[in-house]
């Protein structure tokens, strides 16, 4: 894995997987090295890294319809003003930074703002918020992927983030010791 993160190619890993890993490396490098202010522009930049060379457009809100595999929910086509309002609501006062980051992550996943890389963008964006304060890290352990995907599918359908946030706090949030 270290070879891949350094930009070297591995024979046993597909080119598509190597691109995903390299793009994630670049997105993480961006948030760690620049500690960006959190806003829609930052989310677009994260998607620009995460989805680079994977779709026709990256780093820009999608302009057409998409479907989410395995569910009947179809997210509306995003528009800049409504996304800005939603981000303000999600990040509003009165909730903990962790709750806001998790809710933001789920909002980004369900909204499918981009043509590709929405879940990866959402996780990196939520971690950018948390790492900026040095308290937590969101990581879905491999042994929890099936449950994560089941709960995410339920969330796509009903739009209620509470069950998933509670579950993620138990299984996917790692405290960072300063």
UniProtKB/TrEMBL annotation:
PROSITE patterns in the record: FIDO
Gene3D superfamilies: Fido-like domain (1.10.3290.10)
Boundaries of every Fido domain copy: 38-170
Pfam families reported for this sequence: Fic
Family matches, as SUPFAM superfamilies: Fic-like (SSF140931)
InterPro entries: Fido, Fido-like_dom_sf
Protein name: Fido domain-containing protein
């Amino acid at each position: 894995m270290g070879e891949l993160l350094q930009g070297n190619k591995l024979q046993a890993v597909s080119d598509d997987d190597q691109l995903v890993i390299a793009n994630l490396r670049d997105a993480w490098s961006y948030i760690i090295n620049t500690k960006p202010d959190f806003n829609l522009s930052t989310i677009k930049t994260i998607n620009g890294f995460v989805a680079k060379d994977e779709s026709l457009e990256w780093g820009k809100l999608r302009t057409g319809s998409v479907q989410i595999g395995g569910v009947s929910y179809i997210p509306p086509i995003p528009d800049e003003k409504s996304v800005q309002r939603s981000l303000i609501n999600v990040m509003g006062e009165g909730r903990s930074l962790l709750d806001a980051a998790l809710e933001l992550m789920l909002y980004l996943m369900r909204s499918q703002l981009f043509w590709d890389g929405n879940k990866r963008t959402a996780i990196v964006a939520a971690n950018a918020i948390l790492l900026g304060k040095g308290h937590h890290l969101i990581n879905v352990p491999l042994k929890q992927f099936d449950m994560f995907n089941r709960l995410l599918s339920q969330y796509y359908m009903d739009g209620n983030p509470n069950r998933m946030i509670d579950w993620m706090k138990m299984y996917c949030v790692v405290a960072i010791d300063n």
